[in-house]
Specification:
The complex is a heterodimer of chains A (147) and B (67). By secondary structure, chain A is an alpha+beta fold. Chain A has five helices and six strands. Chain A has a four-stranded mixed β-sheet with strand order 1-4-3-2. A two-stranded antiparallel sheet of chain A has the order 5-6. Classes of the chains: A alpha+beta (147), B mainly alpha (67).
Chain lengths: 147, 67
């Protein structure tokens, strides 16, 4: 998980309306992801008749989807050629309650990506993300997490 | 994201006394106090806050006929 929801989970009080993920693109994971997306009735935004296939999900492009749980952006490769294998060492598993865990990008890497993207909405979020990183680092007692 | 009862801790600062020379908080202080509060929550509670914010925005938009 990357982007605004990842920033929220890391403790940055920002608001976002979509979830961004960078999944592993091997065939087995793409199959699992496709099944999960089908259960959520995912389709390409603006194209309600087009659903992502497991072959689509193995490609490096961006899949901008709408699901029954809200907007979901599935990025094969994120800014700076960041794919799952490159981002994984910069992430941890965070507990989300009810036994659920999610792999979430660390704040310093979220900040680096937003700096690189440089869009107005990314730049606007940076002060809050940097404050959260500064206070998290100062506390030195970050949330329990597993790599 | 699942619906959950929103139960998050709140900082409850005591009101300053009339003669308390407390400095006016700066914009940075405001951000920092907000971030400190957010960091005191669990990840699941942070998701609850995000959900509550989104729902409030959607309700406001719907009330204005924008939804």
């Amino acid at each position: 998980m990357i982007g605004g929801v990842a920033a929220v989970l890391r403790g940055a009080p920002v608001t976002t309306f979509d979830l961004d993920i960078v999944p592993a693109r091997d065939a087995a994971n793409a199959e699992r992801l496709q099944r999960a997306l089908a259960a959520l009735r995912a389709h390409y935004r603006g194209h309600p008749e087009v659903e992502p296939t497991s072959v689509d999900l193995q490609r490096p492009g961006h899949h901008l989807l709408l699901t029954s749980a809200g907007p979901l952006d599935v990025l094969g490769v994120a800014v700076g050629e960041r794919d799952f294998e490159r981002l994984r060492p910069c992430s941890d598993l965070l507990p989300l309650g009810d036994g659920l865990e999610a792999r979430v990008l660390r704040l310093d890497e979220i900040i680096a990506m937003k700096e690189q993207l440089g869009r107005d909405k990314d730049l606007a979020a940076l002060p809050m993300l940097r404050a959260a990183l500064r206070l998290t680092t100062r506390r030195d007692d970050d949330l329990p997490s597993r790599t | 994201m699942r619906d959950r009862l929103l139960r998050v801790p709140h900082d409850s600062p005591q009101p300053a006394a009339a003669n308390d020379p407390a400095p006016a908080p700066s914009a940075d202080d405001h951000d920092e106090s907000l971030v400190r509060w957010y960091l005191s929550l669990t990840p699941a509670q942070r998701l609850d806050v995000l959900n509550a914010n989104i729902n409030a925005i959607l309700r406001a938009r719907a009330a204005q006929g924008l939804g």
